[in-house]
Amino acid sequence: MSKNQQLFERAQRHIPGGVNSPVRAFGSVGGTPRFFERGQGAYVWDADGQRYIDYVGSWGPLIVGHAHPDVLEAVQAAAARGLSFGAPTEAEIELADRLCALLPSLQQVRLVSSGTEATMSALRLARGFTGRDKIVKFEGCYHGHADSLLVKAGSGLLTFGNPSSAGVPAAVAADTLVLPYNDVVQLEALFERLGDQIAAVIVEPFAGNMNLIRPSAEFVQAMRSLTERHGALLIYDEVMTGFRVGLDCAQGLHGVVPDLTTLGKVVGGGMPLAAFGGRADVMARLAPLGPVYQAGTLSGNPVAVAAGLATLELISAPGVFATLTERTTLLADGLNRLGRELDVPFCADSVGAMFGIYCAERVPTSYAEVTASNRERFNRFFHAMLDLGVYLAPSAFEAGFVSTVHSDDDIEATLEAARSALRQVK
Ligand code: PMP
User: PTM N6-(pyridoxal phosphate)lysine: at which residues (predicted)?
Assistant: First the structure.
């Protein structure tokens, strides 16, 4: 039995499912999850000593790769000064200043410890600010695991949401309205009917939790104009896209100024840190200034802030993001070429340093189209790539991530592996 298998068996004794977050269990692709011992640059090594080119990057945060010396130095220096104070520090101000300088929509920002906390808090704030209860989300978008966001579409047009997890009260889910991504007609109809009850629209501005899906220009425009017209807030959940699709995030690429933005992943450089921020008049409703309560023992943790600042510093250097984007495009173009060359329904897309791989003829534009792709072929492709030393997200519904330390040689090696893997699964 491999060490990975031994560890997975041992893990299941005292950890539910053997993992601390469900997708890690390989439930969707089957097989034994890899237990990692070490990461360096673009590579990770598992418990059996196998090396992989890593395109998960801890699900997005590691945009400068594993154990970047500048990030490590910053983290070690901060840790040596104290792990946590539960009191303000100067570094928090530096991070807030930097975030507000990078994103024009951020006038004020508050730090939290996870993306879930950021979206949950942003929604409470939107409800507190507008005095309305209903929120709108889109099918296939994930915004963390707060009750009001674990909601799927009800049956029939414009019905109220149903819980997508046991333990979520139906009454909570009923205030979440779920629509198809990229469906302008339904969004307009919903605002027409319930516009004065809607506190906020929350969206993944490029969806990354149903694989990578781009929004249409009309959809982007409709979300901004409808929320504005009806007095609702537009929340860009940039936990994944923030500093991943570009230095000015998805909102910069869209040319949209959302009312609130949530950030996570890259902003913490691999440490537990996330943020939400936006309009000063909205943020002023937060405690201690206003009546909307929100707090955290470890919020703005100095070690996490140090990792975030060091990471943002690295990717802000001139030319870094352009090169990163080019390399990601190289990967997606190469994968598209392979699909055509080998005549398999297989394609790819990328935005900035984020990419999608689809076992389908065309890049999908909605959750319905994504779920119609060939999941069985993806699973075989995933395992073939794993055997060839390439670690992709263990699910057909996740985006992939390239870092600044993936080299042209790494991309080339990945495309070689993909050629061989596609031949196997054809
Ligand atoms: N929003 C988005 C868009 C995400 O991708 C995620 C995590 N994948 C979250 C929120 C939740 O973040 P966390 O896992 O840090 O709670």
Answer: 265
This model's pTM is above 0.95:
yes
Q: How many helices (H) and strands (E) does the chain have?
A: 14, 16
Whether the link from the prior residue into 215 is cis, omega within 30° of 0, is: no
Please report where in the chains the tokens 């560890």 appear, as a residue. Answer: 7
Range of the domain at 38: 3-67+319-425
Among 149, 210, 240, name the best residue to mutate to test ligand 1's pocket (greatest count of ligand atoms within 8 A of Cβ): 240
Sheet of strand 390-391: strand arrangement: 36-40, 43-46, 51-54, 390-391
Q: What is the pLDDT averaged over residues 322-333?
A: 98
Judgement on whether residues 255 and 199 belong to the same structural domain of the protein: yes
* Residue 277 DSSP SS3: strand
Judge if 164 and 206 occupy the same domain. yes
Structure tokens given for 31: 């097989």
Q: Are residues 143 and 278 in the same domain?
A: yes
Find the DSSP H helices in 175-245: 184-194, 217-230
Domain boundary among 269, 295, 316: 316
Domain count, the chain: 2
Distance between CA atoms of 336 and 162, rounded to whole angstroms?
A: 37
Q: Which pair of structure tokens corresponds to residue 179?
A: 């629509």
Distance 196 CA to ligand 1 centre (A): 28
**pLDDT tens figures, 140-159:** 999 999 999 999 987 655 55
CB 248 within 8 A of CB 322: no
Domain shared by 247 and 342, yes or no:
no
Per-residue confidence (pLDDT) for residue 159, from 0 to 100 = 59
Count of Cβ atoms closer than 10 Å to residue 214 Cβ: 18
- Nearest protein CA to atom 10 of ligand 1, as residue: 143
Higher pLDDT pick, 152 / 43: 43
